[in-house]
Amino acid sequence: MRVKKISHIAVAGNDAEQTRVLYEDILGLNFSGSEPVESEGVTTHFFEVGQSSIEMLEPLNADTPVGKFLEKRGPGIHHMALEVEGLDAYVQKLKTAGIVLLSEEPKIGAHDMRIIFIHPKSTGGVLIELCEKSHPG
Ligand code: CO
After folding, report:
1. Ligand 1 mean position to 10 CA, how many Å?
2. Distance from residue 106's CA to the centre of ligand 1 (Å)
3. What is the pLDDT of residues 73-108, one digit of tens each?
4. CATH says 2-133 is which class?
5. Helix residue ranges per DSSP H, 74-130
């Protein structure tokens, strides 16, 4: 049970092409692909930064969590994700500590990772995702 690294920093926005131009064409990051994640109502676009990445979240429509986030707060940083080993043990530990989670159990996110979110009210205002590879190795 340990935190391995920052998996990604996620930014929410509506203009994937503008984001791609900035991160890929101008900053020179490697664009590693786009993937719809129906469970979260987004398309994710990943740009590699060393062992971590920047994940751009584009809502599938306005009536999704990220669509509502954009309507309320505009584009910007949405969450940070920590890759862990022992996600289920972390979920138990968080629940025992009274930390508020956005779901009871982990879901499947982008890249087939198991993910769960910690509510910002339990973290000092930061939406934190914990993620773990579904198939270690
Ligand atoms: Co994420």
Report:
1. 6
2. 13
3. 999 999 999 999 999 999 999 999 999 999 999 999
4. alpha beta
5. 87-96
